[in-house]
Give the backbone structure.
Amino acid sequence: MRAAVLHAPRDIRLEVRDDPAIVEPTDAVIRLSAACICGSDLWPYRGISAIRKPTPMGHEYAGIVEEVGEAVTAIKPGQFVVGSFFASDNTCAPCRDGYQTSCVNRQGLGGTQSEYARVPLADGTLVATPEVPPADLIPSFLAASDVLGTGWFGAVAAGAGAGKTVVVVGDGAVGLLAVMAARLLGSERIIAMSRHETRQRLAREFGATDIVEERGDDGVAMVEELTDGIGADSAVEAVGTQEAMMQAIRATRPGGHVGFVGVPHGVEIPGAELFSSHVHLHGGPAPVRRFLPQLIDLIWNREIDPGRVFDLTLPFAQVAEGYAAMDERRAVKVLLTV
Amino acid sequence: MRAAVLHAPRDIRLEVRDDPAIVEPTDAVIRLSAACICGSDLWPYRGISAIRKPTPMGHEYAGIVEEVGEAVTAIKPGQFVVGSFFASDNTCAPCRDGYQTSCVNRQGLGGTQSEYARVPLADGTLVATPEVPPADLIPSFLAASDVLGTGWFGAVAAGAGAGKTVVVVGDGAVGLLAVMAARLLGSERIIAMSRHETRQRLAREFGATDIVEERGDDGVAMVEELTDGIGADSAVEAVGTQEAMMQAIRATRPGGHVGFVGVPHGVEIPGAELFSSHVHLHGGPAPVRRFLPQLIDLIWNREIDPGRVFDLTLPFAQVAEGYAAMDERRAVKVLLTV
């Protein structure tokens, strides 16, 4: 099969690799209906996360089940399924608590910028759609496997809900879909922090009521101005930098909630400032599995269209151009036809 | 009046200072029924927090109202009142949310190791008991003004409640009273981390079901062993050091809650570890005022006896011995008769 492999910073290649096969009896092998590039793939692409050896890229996936191991009972060949970047048994204590990304048997899942993928713990990890969906829904299901589920968790962790004012820091796909989630969860006012016109437009389409272009302390001051000087009830941090984290904490009112879903890179939270801020802080690798049944319903019934975050579709052979377009912020998120 | 003044590390003196007077029409002046020394007073006493000039010490208080300003309506001379270390208007948005220590008009209150104290924003800050209490209840009311209210907030912030397993890091008065709070809130299992026999005994009397003597990663391993390898539902951090904060985070299960009430000194929370821990983190200067009516009821009705944290009572003239006893961990908490 063909798969995207990162060899060095900005050196991403399409290569032929062995097709995956069932290894454990709990595995499934799926044929991807499309692939995509995630904002977090840019950390190694830019060389910020080290690459020690050629690394198959991608962790988002949706597609048709080809084959299952003999212990798999809930998932069947021919089904269209969506899963998340961590395989989980969905039965242990953290899974039952809704933290499947902290499953005691969790297994990282990579290399899904490819034609086929092996998914461990298939019964716990995969959720099937009612039927094989029409082609136009595939981008939305692919979004559900990470960026929608992550934005959704960010909004939930931030306590977004009826009557709330929610700030979203980060205008990548996760941030934009956190806007969508905050809207679906009933938030009254949604402030998107973005200085990119196309992303601002998408944020407004997804439900943002206000746009703040300023960053850092200036951005915090703007949020304060919009919230009677007190700060927002909720903030979603969807970047992973020190500046974004502090912006989210400082934009939130005492007793408010910060949901952080940007993978932290060099972030150190000063204890004394967090103490005096009185905010609640919660985040982590999004337990997408917790939300998948609900998200699949919403997409299947065409109540949400998260696939709109894909603003560039390329044939698989142009994967390198896809990375470059996201790196240069020419595209919000790239869909690859495989 | 006489007041305790810190001149330099370990140089605490009893001095004669002017009696406080009404300055603002919203002030009250109270005569303290007793004074006490807080664990947090040890930071400047030990020279860890800098002392730039002679500093009147103390921020806990309970006593009889002597005089009120002309704008004070709810509080009357002759009442016995309890307040907290931040004066608050109890009407602004953060106050209405129960975060009176983030009141937009908050004023720090110090120098209450003294015979009299001026309390700003008296109507918002002070809570009166039904009648002047008998002398044996005074230590408990004094405890309510900070250490009980702070331990209580820590337990609430940690999500202590029915069926929960709660770890308490820190065996000072706040930690011990967090044990009491966790018990009152209905927690099933309360693990006190302490290596001091007298404090262990008090923790057990207050409701601890288990004692862990190990610290750091060994302590975390012991908590894991006691909780099926998953970690506690809740942890209260009542120290303020890096080690205690990380111990609390690491002892908590994915999706669990850490309530931190130790004033952070040099604490930096690594973003990546907090991310992967999946814990909820909430803390800050305890909004004691939120809990005071409930705590006063519990004490008045003799349902709790938080005054038991005072294990050494000294005449005011021996304030220096009181500090030394707490510094050397010969006493949990010192009551000063003024």
Chain B has a mean pLDDT of 97. The two ends of chain B are 10 Å apart (CA to CA). The first strand of chain B starts at residue 2 and ends at 8. Residues 163 and 188 of chain B are 5 Å apart (CA to CA).
